[in-house]
Amino acid sequence: MATQIRVRRARGLVATTALVACIATARAGDLIPVYNAVVGGRSVVLSYDDGASAYTGIGRYEGMGTCTAFFLATALPEQEHLSEAPAYAVTSPRCAADLGADAVITEQPGIGRIIFKYFRDSTNRQTAIPVRRTTYATTRGRSLAILELDVSYVALVQQLVRPWRVPYSRPMLPGDLIAVVGAPHWSDPADSFLRLATCRFEGMAPVVVEHLWRTAYASFNRCRDVMPSSVGSPVLSVVDRVVIGIVNTTTAYAEGGEPCSLGHPCEPGPDGTRTRKDTTYVTPVAGINACFDERHRFNTLQPDCPLDQGR
Question: Which of 29, 46, 63 is the last residue in one of the domains?
Answer without folding.
Answer: 46
